[in-house]
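Revision sheet: structure tokens.
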Amino acid sequence: MKIQLIRVIFLKYLIKGLVAMVGLYIFARKNVMRNFRVIKAIPVVILAVFLMTGFSGCKKVKDTIEAAWEGYWAGVFDLGDGWQIELSGDRATYVTAGISKTGTNVGDSFAIGMELVGNNKWKGNIRDKNGFGFLVRGTAEIVNNKLVITPDGAAPYTLNKGVKNTGSSGGGTGTNAQTLLNEKVDGKRGDQKIYKVTIPTGVKVLEVRTTEVAGTYYYNLADLFVSKGVDPTVKLLPTYSWTADKASVNPNREDDVVVFQNPAAGVYHIMLYGYNSDFTSQLVVKIEK
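Predicted:
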């Protein structure tokens, strides 16, 4: 899509330059009897016009190309409630999970089949209901570092430009969150790594997350379980099952997240379990009052 847009822009300004040159030549021929010296001046004038048109056109082409690249379908945007999406190619995907949403998981499609239809505007299949509904036809437009989503026949909603959460900030908690635990955890297949955190009174949100941190080795394949007051437990027979207040068992290396709203004060037991693989995960626990 980038290459096609650049070609169209280049041809547009090239044609404008050629039209200007031809027009000047015709004008000079019509007035040749009035002043023979015009003939001699034609090559010089045409060259001057070509150079001026060319250089100004190149600047416009450069500026337009830069604007097109700035508005290209890419980037991370905050959806709300700790969720983030990332734009890439002709689609957008949920890349960070926040407060649990029924039927929504990291790796699911937020938008698919997006095609450029205007200046920084795309058309395709996008989620309705503020980003957590069904895929429906609609438009997406990038305006001032905001992504404006307009499902067909429904009210628009807006996402702010964000930075992909890697476990150091964000999540189901907000910008005023307090970090209680931020530790790298290694385990073998079958290992159960237990951590305990004390939650005080007056907490509005408790978020427990396993993630990977960019720049170092991680392999976030641990399943995450949390219970208040007791250790979570798992069973492998007759089927894989567990006893826990909350659990997150995503099959791949995406973040596992559990969120408690208005959690009761007390000690919470967190278990990272290597169900079928070794793992290296960053365990992050945050609260917000």
